[in-house]
Design goal:
about 600 residues, alpha+beta, Multidrug efflux transporter AcrB transmembrane fold, Pdz3 Domain, Alpha-Beta Plaits, 7-stranded antiparallel beta sheet, 6-stranded antiparallel beta sheet, elongated
Length: about 600
């Protein structure tokens, strides 16, 4: 039996791939729909989140999107719902505001064209030209890439009342739309600038320059200009906003940083991280690098601010704070160490806290993404949200399998005519289809346990074959270990492999390469009578593999630039092609060669 150990390895990996794709755990049952969007005006806002599974509505089981649409068509009043194992109750008045799609029945992560997704329409709050909308799309695409959002497509759409931004994405929640995509991202850093009065007169100090300040009968005069609360004045290229008078002190807000001053947002562990707090909360922090002009304004504003000693911390601070705003909302308020007064600060820290670690990590990533991408040229608001069906039709997978089988039958017929033997064509069809199955199994998610079992089984077969002193095949040994390891890695974290149109294109290329290589093996094996000298069967197979290895390595090296330098769509094609070639030369080609050797040994 171990004489055919390469074929045993192929069978083991086929079984592992089938289990990796189809063995799906349903923690809340096999019936239900997946939440893809919850609108802001939905009564379920704050209860349901994107990705949750709704299993029942008012005590009735929800069996797919059609059943959901029928049950929610005229829904009103009190609603009882079960979602992801939890029970929720709320009242519905005008709209339920929940968009759903069918649950995925396999462990494969299908893309927008295959499974469908969410269509979101964003409208500028003020009239915007097509150029402004195009600039907004460029910024939004940058944010999507930095945040790791996959399968997102953005288009400018013209309407009767102006231009819109249309987003098509696979599973984007309302929190991403509101907190990341539609947020303008205007950043400001302001320092509290106090001016001490003596006899209703004081001095505004900015670096090495001073201006007289007076407050007579409630009228504040700065450098000869009268200011009311919230009025601004610009001195030494610094905008100062008058806030109020507290005792013998006038309080101003001096803008020292703005969005154009941010030159770099640090994400490395030395400049960003998480700090656990009491009660399970977490504080996040990260550092930004600002321009020389921003650092100079900070030095000028903090010059002359009084200092105080904090008894609790034992540190000395300026009698001021730096306030960091994003779209007018305060995101950080930090004390300023006394030794920073009057000095350049080019790397201010942004901090915040959330009630748990996951929320803190998400908020930190959103802020970093917005600051790295820059501000939108206009403010966007959500107009409508809808579900888009798969562009390739619900029966795409079935049609693709049928087309593949028909193509395989045609290839088998041609091979049978060429070699006048069915024993050459049928194994070629089976091995080619098994190659596709293994590739799809590698692309599956949540399958590390299955591939680890495959790895152990492959290792046992290889060791047993070696112990029984069968022939040495280094490539098959490497494949027995490397392919399961790739399967364990793919589908986890940032290695999630989306099955989309580029992947289908890569599979077609892999199938073509597989047929070519198997024809080479068959041709080299069966043409011995035409050679000028006689070769043994093993020598013929070795000659065939020499040709195959050269062609396969050429393909891999041709795909590497697309893998590391290409955009997302091209990268998906490259990943599929590279992994397909590895599966072929390390698993399926050795198995096919052993089959041909066994069939034509006599």
């Amino acid at each position: 039996m171990l004489k055919y150990w390469r074929i045993i390895l192929l069978v083991i990996m086929i079984l592992g791939a089938v289990l990796a794709m189809g063995f799906k755990i349903y923690p809340y049952g096999r019936h239900g729909v997946e939440v893809v969007y919850v609108s802001d005006d939905s009564p379920a806002k704050g209860f349901l989140e994107q990705g949750m599974i709704i299993t029942s509505l008012n005590g009735a089981v929800v069996d797919g999107t059609e059943d959901w649409d029928a049950k929610t068509e005229s829904l009103s009043g009190r609603v009882d719902m079960s979602a992801s194992g939890q029970s929720y109750s709320f009242n519905v008045n005008d709209t339920l505001g929940i968009q759903v799609m069918d649950m995925e029945r396999t462990n494969l992560e299908f893309g927008l064209d295959m499974r469908g997704g969410t269509r979101i329409l964003l409208k500028p709050k003020e009239n915007a030209t097509r150029e402004v909308v195009q600039q907004s799309i460029a910024t939004l695409q940058t944010r999507a890439n930095l945040y790791g959002l996959k399968e997102m497509k953005l288009y400018p759409v013209g309407g009767a009342d102006g231009w819109y931004v249309q987003i098509e994405a696979a599973g984007v929640g309302s929190d991403i739309v509101n907190d990341l995509l539609s947020k303008q991202g205007t950043f400001e850093g302001k320092v509290i600038k106090p001016v001490e009065l003596s006899g209703n007169a004081g001095t505004m100090v900015l670096g090495d320059q001073t201006w007289p300040v007076t407050d007579a009968n409630g009228t504040v005069m700065v450098a000869g200009k009268s200011l009311s609360p919230n009025d601004t004045i610009t001195l030494k290229n610094t905008e100062l906003q008058f806030i109020n008078r507290t005792g013998e002190r006038l309080v101003f807000l001096a803008k020292v940083y703005e969005g154009k001053d941010i030159e770099l947002v640090y994400t490395d562990p030395q400049h960003s991280g998480m700090i656990p707090l009491t009660g399970g909360a977490y504080r996040f922090y990260f550092t930004v690098l600002v321009s020389e002009s921003g650092a100079r304004r900070f030095a000028d504003v903090t010059e002359g601010i009084p200092k105080y000693f904090d008894v609790q911390s034992g540190e000395e601070y300026l009698d001021s704070e730096i306030l960091l705003y994003l779209d007018g909302q305060l995101v950080s308020d930090l004390r300023i160490s006394a030794d920073l007064g009057g000095n350049y600060v080019s790397t201010p820290s942004i901090q915040g806290s959330r009630e748990d670690k996951d929320s803190a990590v998400e908020e930190k990533m959103k802020l970093q993404t917005i600051l790295r991408s820059g501000a939108l040229p206009t403010t966007l608001e959500t107009v409508s949200v809808g579900i888009i069906s798969p562009k390739l039709g619900a029966g795409f997978i079935q049609d693709a399998v049928l087309a593949g089988l028909l193509a395989g039958i045609v290839v088998v017929v041609i091979i049978v005519v060429r070699y006048r033997s069915l024993k050459v064509g049928l194994p070629m069809l089976v091995v080619g289809m098994s190659e596709v199955v293994i590739i799809m199994g590698i692309a599956a998610t949540n399958d590390a346990a299955i591939w680890s079992v495959v790895l152990v089984a492959n290792l046992a077969v290889v060791l047993a074959a070696w112990w029984k002193k069968h022939e040495i095949d280094v490539s098959a040994w490497v494949g027995a270990l490397l392919i399961p390891l790739i399967g364990m890695i793919m589908g986890v974290g940032s290695f999630i492999w989306t099955i989309d149109l580029p992947t289908i294109g890569g599979l077609i290329a892999v199938i073509g390469t597989s047929v070519d290589h198997q024809i080479i093996i068959a041709d080299e094996t069966l043409k011995g009578e035409k050679e000028r000298r006689s070769y043994t069967l093993k020598e013929k197979i070795k000659r065939a593999f020499f040709i195959i290895m050269g062609a396969a390595l050429t393909t891999v090296f041709a795909m590497l630039p697309l893998l590391f330098l290409g955009v997302g769509l091209v990268r998906g094609f490259a990943i599929t092609t590279i992994i397909g070639v590895l599966v072929g030369i390390l698993v399926t080609r050795p198995a096919y060669a052993r089959i041909i050797e066994a069939l034509f040994k006599k």
